[in-house]
Amino acid sequence: MDEIESIVKEKKNNQEKKFTLKEFGGAFGDWGTLIPYIIGYISIVGLHPAGIFLCLGITNIVLGLRYNLPLPVQPQKTIGAIAISTKWAPNMVISTGFGTGIIWLLLGFSKKLNNVVKLIPIVSVRGIQLGLALLLGHNSIIMFSDNLLLGFISVAIILIFIKSKKIPSAIILTIFGVILLIVNGVFQSKSIWFSLPIFEFHIPTWDNLFWGMIYAGFGQLFLTLTNVMVATVILIRDLFPNKSDKIDANSLSFNMGVLNTISPFVGGIPLCHGSGGLAAQYAFGARSGGSMILEGIMEIVLGLFFSNTLFIIFSEFPQAILGAMLLYTATLLVKVSFKEYNSKNLPIILLSATFAYFFNISIGFLVGLGLNYILKAMKYLT
């Protein structure tokens, strides 16, 4: 009897620890990465914040309850970068997200995902990461030039807070942008009001699904398979060794499949799991699913009751600040793309990036993959 009471007491204590101040701080951990994409999707692509925030909120709460781990979802960065840099229509975004969702579901059900990951050489993925950085950087410079002074100030803020684990520069820049909107009279106190959301229901089209997958979707799949899924599973094993048996590549794939086949219909953005978001939340104090539940509650409140206010803020958000954010994102991608750099695989990275930049991500990946196998056949690569 005493043993049962002890187990119940321990379980109760664990439940209480889900909602500490540290967990609340951890809830903001991945917002530094999330915010630039959300602003881009709203201000450039034209998606409404209600669907974006509601889908994010529900997903975070469900995953927090299911795994009791900080397992945040992040924008699918390849799709996001292409959509923002080339100003996709909203239906192209949701159709592409739906297409990836179908594939993730099939891969999750197949239980063969770990074997698929082993077939993809990481150097081919590095090439499309560099190409993605070039695309994102090109568009960010155009946005940056909208107001050079504001752009350089924004870059200075990023450099000042670049090593801060407590205050992500993206959050500082978002606050800075809102302050400028208030000072310039674009955003006023009367703009803040409690209101029910406006949902935009979308139906994916075959045409947008096909071209969206060609331009970005397939490239995103390869990137997620190698650089996100594997990294996320490994990081969970490192940070939470006692809970690592709950997560594998197949379960992550199933999660993303369900999410991306449902959320597009209400205007949700393409999402995936990411090791970066997990690392950021952990650094800010997240140790359980409580951080995700708290984040989800905040996102649902924002989406349900303040979506019109958010739409005004992000639609008018200073382009130079967003350009600086995306420029910093591009530099991080450049850094990652040369992670396995050496003189022998450099041609693969550069050629893949070139084709990705001038044509599209999927072609860039296939070119890099083909060159990789050719060089291995010639015994140039081991």
UniProtKB/TrEMBL annotation:
InterPro entries linked: MOT1/MOT2
Species of the source: Promethearchaeum syntrophicum
Keyword Transmembrane included in the entry's annotation: yes
Superkingdom to which the source organism belongs: Archaea
Keywords, sorted A to Z: Membrane, Transmembrane, Transmembrane helix
GO molecular function, one term: molybdate ion transmembrane transporter activity
Membrane-crossing segments per the record: 38-63, 88-109, 141-162, 169-189, 209-236, 296-314, 320-338, 350-375
Full protein name: Sulfate/molybdate transporter
